[in-house]
Every structure is written in C-alpha cells, then in structure tokens.
Amino acid sequence: MSDEEKYAVIGKTVSEHAEVRKQITLLRTRLREIGETYRFIGRQLNELPDHTIAFGELVDARFATQRVNVALSTWVDIAGVLDLARQLRDAAMRETELATQLTQLGVPPR
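Structure (tokenized):
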C-alpha cells in the first residue's frame, strides 16, 4: 500500500471512528432520557396509578389533583427501547473494530 493509500485509509477510518463515537453518545443520551421517563412513570404508577393521565386527556375532576401528565409523543415502547439498545451494542462493537484498525495503522484512537 502506498503512503497516499495509507493516508486515505487512515482519514476514512478516523472519520468513521469519530462518527461512531458520536452515535454512541447520542444513543446513550437517548436511552438515559427514556430511562428517566420510565422511572418517573413507574413511581407514579406505584403511588397514584389512577392519576397518571395522558397529556390533553379529559378526566373526572377527582383524578385531576396530584395528576401527572404523560406526553404520549415522548413515550417509547419496549420494542423501541430494545432496538435502541441493540443499535448501541452494534455501535460499540464497531467502535472497537475501528479503534483496533487505527492502532494497527499506527494512529492512536481518540
């Protein structure tokens, strides 16, 4: 492999490595946000399940006190959570592969 080809491979690998690391950060952040929402809803369901109300839902006044509004548009079902977790695992494995490639090319991964 010529030096020019090697530098092209290094550039491509460094760029992909940075992109995968960014993807990992975004996925972890999103999963943490979802986890906080699940935790919040879980507490509410344990303490006052009948006061857990979808945002904009009309309810009897007796349930309106101490109510917690849940924005359905922010809710991610378990299949969606598991898919995000799978994407995170895939990205982590790809990041490891790219870091190994960079090390083999003589470039320390960042």
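The chain has a mean pLDDT of 88. Residues 57 and 69 are 9 Å apart (CA to CA).
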